[in-house]
Amino acid sequence: MGPEELWSLHGTGKGGSSMTAVAAKPAAGSAMNPTAMLVGIIILIVLLGIAYYISPSLGLMALIGIVIGGVLIGFGVHFVPVGGAPAAMGQAPGIATGVAMLAAGAGLAGLFGGAWAADQGLVIAVITGGIGGGMMMAITCMMVNFVYVFGMGIPAASGKVAKDPITGDTQAEYKSQGTEGHGLPFVSFVGGVTGGILGGAGGTLIYLELLGLYKATLPTVMGATAAQVLPIAVSIAGMFAIGMFLVNAVLTAYNITGTIEGPHDPKFKRWPRAIVASAVASALCGLVAILIVTI
After folding, report:
1. Which residues does 123 contact at the CB level (< 8 Å), separation at least 6?
2. What distance in Å separates the CA atoms of residue 279 and residue 48, rounded to the nearest whole number?
3. Which domain holds residue 61?
4. Confidence (pLDDT) at 30
5. Would residue 9 count as lying in a domain?
6. 10 in a domain, yes or no?
7. What's the rounded Cα separation, in Å, for the pair 261 and 256?
8. Distance CA 90, CA 207 (A)
9. 175: helix, coil or strand?
10. Helix or strand or coil: residue 37?
């Protein structure tokens, strides 16, 4: 009997017992489901169609921007090195926290930076948001390695690859026996910064699209001047942007199922499914955000 099967005992009619083999289910997220992804794409098209029917110009364009922002967030989270509780004990590479929490932190840092530059135009604001998220992750990764090296006395080493894909440094000599690695190898550091840039840019794009929509529609809806509704537009757009970022971060965390070292981790290959899920979730949440000012 192979290790993939589970033996169980059950009683017979006269008190005896017999053994039956129950095949173990495959690990969550180990394979793509084309049917589910196709259904997700159909749902996405339907949601875009509803937005086009309700608001063919502002609403549809805002929803497309929101979907693009959500996709950037979902894809970017896969770059972020997350080690969870094992990393806190130096038993696995990555940052000792959860996927959703770390991604949300990077995204919010980028969102604040992008919101500050909102008056400078879409392109500059999105770039500023990406820089903000990337800086947050760069500082976090640097401090994590500082604590590992000087606080715990262990070097950075990966357990997923024999050599760092960027520097070419071998990993086996630095990996402690009985662990999956520890610290943040250079490829994980670069992955964390890349994920922060994508997440910050995506969150900023969502905020800017909603802000533009609310600034254009709230004066008519509320019967007030543009200056009077600006604080309300900023507040509502910010709340929806933060909420959508958390939605996409949590969805991607379920797709990753546990820890991930970065772009060199085998789990990184699951990103297509997260892209579809993030697009559908962003479209649904974005449609709700659009409906409050278009109905």
Report:
1. none
2. 11
3. 34-294
4. 53
5. no
6. no
7. 11
8. 37
9. coil
10. helix
Which one-letter amino acid corresponds to residue 15? G
Split into its structural domains, the chain has a count of: 1
Nearest to 260 by CA among 21, 19, 92: 92
**Size (the chain), residues:** 295
pLDDT in tens, 145-165: 898 888 888 888 888 888 888
Indicate whether 29 belongs to any domain. Answer: no
Angle, alpha carbons 119-123-127 (nearest 5°): 100
Distance CA 175, CA 92 (A): 10
**Which amino acid, residue 11?**
G
Dist CA 240 CA 221 (whole Å): 19
User: Angle 118-132-189 (CA atoms, 0-180°, nearest 5)?
Assistant: 155
What contacts 122, CB < 8 A, 6 or more positions away? Answer: 205, 208
What burial letters (b/e) apply to 218-234, b meaning 16+ CB within 10 Å?
bbeeeeeeeeebbeebb
CA 233, CA 220: separation in Å to the nearest integer?
13
Strands 157-158 and 17-23 come out as unpaired
Q: Is residue 77 assigned to a domain? A: yes
Cβ neighbours of 13 (radius 10 Å): 5
Summarize pLDDT for 174-195 with one digit per residue, the tens: 888 878 888 888 888 999 999 9
Question: Is-contact 283 47, C-beta < 8 A?
Answer: yes
> How distant is the alpha carbon of residue 184 from its chain centre?
19
Q: Helices 186-222 and 271-294 meet at what angle, rounded to 10?
A: 20
pLDDT digits (tens, 9 = 90+) for 45-56: 999 999 999 888
CA 192-193-194 angle, 5° bins: 90
Tokens matching residue 267: 């789990």
